Inverse folding.
């Protein structure tokens, strides 16, 4: 029972990391300091997809499910809804590359917008603080 709960928690953290990598730049709009966490997560996620690497949480989750002795027919609510989102069946190399590109494009657009709407100094004196 403990391994199943741990596996569910890992799956939830994994899902949260994916959502944060994809949409965390929206949080940067409200909390600027969030950028120090979001940029590394988004780049790590995109690089993992573009290079075809697996994320360390996936093997951990699978290992915990094996230790829990879970069979395919013993699927819980968490696995039923989150697993198809994190592990789509046709996860080909082409689809992985596409997912990595989506992470880069979505975040690039949001960060470009953040930089564009940043207030700009009106003249040279404002730059020098005079």
């Amino acid at each position: 029972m403990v391994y199943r709960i741990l596996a569910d928690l890992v799956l939830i953290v994994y899902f949260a990391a994916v959502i944060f990598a994809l949409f965390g730049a929206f949080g940067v709009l409200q909390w600027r300091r969030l950028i120090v966490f979001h940029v590394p997560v988004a780049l790590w996620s995109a690089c993992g997809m573009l290079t075809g690497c697996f994320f360390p949480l996936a093997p951990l989750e699978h290992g915990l499910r094996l230790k829990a002795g879970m069979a395919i027919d013993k699927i819980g609510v968490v696995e039923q809804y989150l697993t198809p989102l994190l592990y789509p069946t046709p996860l080909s190399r082409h689809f992985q590359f596409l997912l990595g590109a989506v992470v880069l494009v979505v975040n690039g657009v949001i960060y470009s917008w953040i930089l564009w709407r940043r207030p700009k100094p009106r003249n040279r004196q404002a730059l020098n603080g005079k």
